[in-house]
Amino acid sequence: MTTRLIVPSKLLLQLRTYIPKGPLTYGQALTVAERQAARLRELLGVRTAKMPFDWVEHVPNLTLQVLPAHEIERLAGRPASGLTRWNQQLTYLVAVNKNTSFTHRRYTLAHEIKHVIDCPAVDTAYARIGYGNDELRGRRIEGICDHFAAHLLMPGRLVTKAWHLGIQGLGELAGQFGVSEDAMQIRLSSLGFVDPDKDKPASYFFREVDPPRFTRV
Questions:
Q1: In this structure, are residues 174 and 60 in contact, taking their beta carbons and an 8 Å threshold?
Q2: How far apart are CA 17 and CA 92, in angstroms?
């Protein structure tokens, strides 16, 4: 019998304490996302590699729905994996596209949780991200949420532990953490366990506008 995780009454407030009052740089926002992901696991008492999500429905003022693709598209105004809506009373709706894979749905939900955490501070904290370019700003905010999801689903400490215990097969690792093989491949690369550029030394000296995006496949 699985014991349901207990959700602290001020869970979201505790995670929001990591967001400074003023604007963040993109790098600072990624660091905040990492710290929030680690703290969320800690607050919920999660010790397992695979992040459970049965607790989400018990977050105060949050409604979680799993909807067919056409409903998500109608609500979002475009095809989407999921969406988050909120109002001035800080009541949240999180909807996830049911017509995607199991790992995709898990990644989407983790991503949308970050939107919920950020919503009261998004205009202030992300005011300077994108250098005044709305399209770039939106893309980078999505990247920050994906970064949070990656660290929530695949904590560096636990991936490293599994790797050193000899669990190094991509499929085995992905299964243990409940993510796609593509997502795990990117995570292993970010931790330095695999190196897709090992035969291209010059690639280390070019700066990317955005870091590699995690996939939700």
A1: no
A2: 19
Residues 118, 7: Cα–Cα separation, whole Å: 18
Q: What is the pTM of this model?
A: 0.90
The DSSP bridge pattern shows strands 82-86 and 92-97 to be: antiparallel
CA–CA distance from 25 to each of 30, 111, 118 (Å)?
A: 9, 20, 15
Model confidence over 124-177: pLDDT tens digits?
999 999 888 999 999 999 999 999 999 999 999 999 999 999 999 999 999 999
Q: Which domains does the chain have, with CATH numbers?
A: 11-153 (1.10.10.2910)
**Residue recorded with tokens 């920050």:** 144
Instruction: Give the least confident one: 3-7, 28-32, 111-115.
Output: 3-7
Helices (H), the chain: 11-16, 26-44, 69-76, 102-118, 122-125, 134-153, 156-164, 170-177, 181-191
| Integer Cα distance of 197 and 201 in angstroms | 7
Number of other residues whose CB lies within 10 A of the CB of residue 19: 21
Confidence of residue 1 (pLDDT cuts 50, 70, 90): very low
One-letter amino acid for residue 81 of the chain: S
DSSP, collapsed to helix, strand or coil, labels residue 55 as coil
